[in-house]
Amino acid sequence: MSRIGKAPITVPQGVNVTINGSKVIVKGPKGELSRELHLSMELKKENDTLVVVPREPLGNIYGLTRTLVNNMVEGVSQGFSKSLTLKGVGYRAAVQGTQLNLTIGYSHPVLYDIPKSIDVSVDKQTTVLVSGADKELVGQVAANIRAFRKPEPYHGKGIRYTDEVIITKAGKSGAKK
To answer: By residue range, what is the domain housing residue 145?
Structure first.
């Protein structure tokens, strides 16, 4: 049995969980999320806790199911966020309506369409904060923005996560004879 899967999920005040067969709908102050659970897993609600129960012995996605439901509950109550930093001369970002405008060293600005359930804010033109209720979508949007200009290993220029450490390489040294 999974140690992670056995742990109960506490549902905070203000969060409503609805279970329809294998579909789970979680509503809270930050939004609403829904997910279809695997057929070998069952979710039971007892007062203010949720428990994942495998229908088959030794369900191989026991811990994953519990983590996905826990992320839904945490997302609609507190939310998730990722912070990106732009490092480079002239690198900057701005939010224009439903698009993120990035000036990151190309001959043209890069425009990224922001999904409806995600909030993107820019601080000091070089820090981009991606936040929302869906942990998976927040991480994917942050990864998509980072992919426009990954940090390069010689000077460290590019878009990086704020807590990411880039180990820079030494450049070429003079010709040795």
So the answer is: 80-161
CATH of the domain at 7: 3.90.930.12
**Angle formed by the axes of helices 135-147 and 62-77, nearest 10°:** 80
128: Cβ–Cβ under 8 A, 6 or more apart, which residues? 83, 84, 85, 86, 93, 100, 120, 121, 122, 145, 159
d(CA 9, CA 44): 10
Specify whether 104 is located in the same domain as 148: yes
Q: Is residue 173, in this structure, part of any structural domain at all?
A: no
Q: For the chain, how many structural domains are there in total? A: 2
Give per-residue pLDDT as tens, 132-165: 999 999 999 999 999 999 988 888 899 999 988 8
CA dist 58 to 8, 42, 48, 61, 69, Å?
A: 18, 13, 26, 9, 19
pTM over 0.90: no
Q: Which two tokens stand for residue 145?
A: 């923005």
